[in-house]
Amino acid sequence: MPLYEYQCTQCHYGFDKIVQRWDAEVRCPLCRGKVEKQLSSFSVGSPRPKQGYPPAGAGPKICNNC
Predict the structure, then answer these.
(1) 35 with 5: CB under 8 angstroms?
(2) 27-53 burial: b if 16+ Cβ within 10 Å, else e
(3) Residues 6+ positions from 16 with CB-CB distance below 8 Å
(4) With bands split at pLDDT 50, 70 and 90, how would you rate the model's confidence at 14?
(5) Alpha helices, H only, the chain
(6) Contact assessment for residue 18 and residue 12, using Cβ atoms and an 8 Å cutoff
(7) Is the C-alpha dihedral spanning 55, 58, 64, 65 positive or negative?
(8) How far apart are CA 13 and CA 30, in angstroms?
(9) In 3D, which of 1, 33, 35 has the Cα closest to residue 15?
(10) Which helix (H) or strand (E) element contains residue 7?
């Protein structure tokens, strides 16, 4: 389920909410006013491992005696 950011049009309270459907009706948790979805930033994962991960020497061993 996606996490969306909202801001109340009446009291201007900003909050995040996990919703099941894009068109789900969401109200402000403080004043029950109407809210607007906000543009959210997102990150995209990279298939490359982080630098230094896995630790040096943790990879498969190569047999030099075969």
Answers:
(1) no
(2) ebeeeeeebeeeeeeeeeeeeeeeeee
(3) 3, 4, 5, 6
(4) very high
(5) none
(6) no
(7) positive
(8) 8
(9) 35
(10) strand 3-8
Beta-bridge partners for 3: 18
Cis peptide, bond prior to residue 47, ω within 30 of zero? no
Q: Which CA distances in Å does 7 have to 3, 18, 22, 41?
A: 14, 14, 16, 15
Could you tell me the pTM of the whole model? 0.57
| Amino acid type, 28 | C
* Cβ within 8 Å of residue 25, ≥6 positions away: none
The label of the residue with tokens 């009291």 reads 11
Q: Which residue has the tokens 């906000």?
A: 38
Q: Look up residue 21 and give its two tokens.
A: 């459907």
Residues 36-48: what's their mean pLDDT? 72
Q: How many residues does the chain have?
A: 66
